[in-house]
Structure prediction request, 364 residues.
Amino acid sequence: MNVMDFNVKRFAADAGTFLSRAVQFTEEKLGQAEKTELDANLENLLTKAENTKIWTEKIMKQTEVLLQPNPNVRIEEFLYEKLEKKAPTRMNNHDLLGQYMIDSANDFGPGTAYGNALAKCGETQKQIGSAEREFIQSTAINFLTPFRNFLEGDFKTISKERKLLQNKRLDLDAAKTRLKKARVTEAKAAAEQELRITQSEFDRQAEITRLLLEGISGTHAHHLRCLNDFVEAQATYYAQCYQYLLDLQKQLGSFPSTFSSNNNQTSTSSLPSISIPSIPISTSLPTQANSVVTSGFSELRASSGSRKARVLYDYDAADSSELSLLADEVITVYSVPGMDSDWLMGQRGNQKGRVPITYLELLN
Prediction:
């Protein structure tokens, strides 16, 4: 037998098998043929695997949206990944905002109150942008990649074996149908032999599929570890952002109107007590002291006396507890017990109120 004859016979056999399966499947759908049902345990495993695939896809896709809300950028990154090329480095939204703030600070003058505040805010936004990149990278490696590997690896293997099981089941039921229709003794003997073979192949494929499906529990355990990694990375990221912004608030204590709420309550004087969870943070967080707190102010707070101070900038009081200031005027300042280190009490004649120390220059 030459190769061509072998290929023709093989094609004919495959076509016959395909036709037999198609007929069996159609008759089952029309209710004209019986169907061998899988045992309950195997059915439950198949359902569990399918649900795992569906929810893994949904969680993975929504995580990608969380990390990159822009759909066009996501498509671009997907194409680079498929082409096995490195995506171009781009600034994130925090980076862009930070750069705009720094550029505007240079334009307005970093020596002005507004320019100085913009510069500080810009640097903090860049720090947050850097923390965001670390969070995205960690999540992509420790969370998204294992989920994607399951969908593109293990589940594809499960789907392939499940399809083979379906075909073996159709072959088995088609053999049962042929045995029922056999009338001649020779035909019955051949049908019985075919039934034994298809039953054996079906049982073997059912066992292979079962073993693969039982691995879904291991997949869940692995995904649980990945979920822990994701939560830890997210907690680290938000803790970093909180610390950066907390430090920025301290630096901008001289600009309370910037942080005033709708109720005109300054956050610098009444920050909420927030407990940061004790988690490992890979990058060192800034611990910059407020540069405007000079030794002169420290000495004044430590003493019970008062000093004259020149006002550097105009300042509008946020509420009745504060004192409005005019640039270049001279006022008396002193400290009271329990007062925030960024503030002093100011007095102009009979008017008294809290004043930010960064608006002041102590006089000798």
User: Anything to note?
Assistant: Strands lie at 306-311, 330-334, 343-348, 351-356, 360-362. The CA atoms of residues 149 and 160 lie 16 Å apart. The chain is about 60% helix and 5% strand.
